[in-house]
Design a protein that fits this description.
heterodimer; A: about 140 residues; alpha+beta; three-stranded antiparallel beta sheet; about 30% helix; globular; B: about 120 residues; four-stranded antiparallel beta sheet; 1 helix; about 5% helix; about 45% strand
Chain lengths: ~140, ~120
């Protein structure tokens, strides 16, 4: 059996894998919009299940190369050979590189800490001042 | 009635005895990504083909798909699961892999609300 399109693999995986709620969140600020509040990335539980299972998700490098492929052109990641199982920590690093702009996790050279991987308990449950959230330096 | 079990069947058409349907009709008509979110805790209750959500600010959430869409012309929908008197959810493509869900109360103020969103569109 060929590995087929990523969408097909995700559909098949959802029929047999239980979702996994991550114990981590990714807190980050966008250096291009310093006045905006800190953002909180929440991993998808079905993505986490697929990452921990292995043989479903494509290499992260294929997503990164596809960033430069114009819309409407064939992308590499849907048909790339799937990679093996990841640990939860590796899955979070994968997500950072896939879902957060490289200007945050790769290119930023400033002195502020603009990205942190934190336990979910560290995210405030009181959202009264949500739009003032910043990463503690 | 007998049962045929196969792990992979390559099927071009489906026929129920009277109507023949291309299997591509089924896949093309399927939702390509969807999710339901409890906003207060930013919990993804269930989903398909999503890798993460990002809590951007009060009433603003970015959703990122595991797949890339061929364009931003797919049908992108969102619904408020919480406030019956609120304004409707506004959803907007921000790229061929991400979209933003905005929720507002009846006074047009951005407000956290549970929501669902779904995309029907062409894959890249």
């Amino acid at each position: 059996m060929t590995h087929g399109h990523l969408w097909d693999r995700l559909a098949e995986a959802k029929t047999r894998l239980d979702p996994v709620q991550s114990k981590y969140r990714v807190l980050f600020e966008d250096p291009a919009t310093p006045d905006e509040p800190a953002k909180v990335l929440v991993p998808d539980p079905n993505f986490m299940a697929a990452a921990l299972e292995g043989d479903i998700l494509p290499p992260i490098e294929t997503y990164q190369r596809d960033r430069s492929v114009p819309d409407g052109q064939p992308k590499e990641h849907p048909y790339a050979e799937p990679i093996g199982a990841m640990t939860e920590e590796e899955a979070i690093e994968y997500l950072v590189q896939k879902d957060i702009d490289p200007s945050v996790w790769r290119d930023y050279k400033g002195n502020r800490t603009i990205l942190k991987i934190v336990p979910v308990e560290m995210i405030p449950s009181d959202r009264s001042f949500r739009n003032a959230w910043r990463i503690v330096q | 009635m007998s049962t045929l079990e196969v792990s992979t069947a390559k099927v071009t058409n489906l026929n129920d005895g009277t109507t023949t349907l291309a299997t591509t009709f089924v896949t093309n008509g399927s939702a390509k990504a969807w999710l339901k979110v409890t906003k207060a805790s930013d919990t993804i209750n269930d989903s398909f083909s999503v890798t993460s959500i990002t809590d951007v600010a009060t009433g603003k959430t970015t959703v990122t798909s595991a797949i890339t869409f061929g364009n931003q012309n797919g049908s992108l929908l969102g619904t408020n699961n919480q406030g019956s008197t609120d304004l409707g959810v506004y959803v907007n493509w921000s790229s061929t892999t991400t979209w933003v869900v905005y929720t507002k109360d009846s006074g047009e103020t951005f407000t956290d609300r549970d929501f669902s969103s779904v995309i029907h569109g062409d894959l890249a």
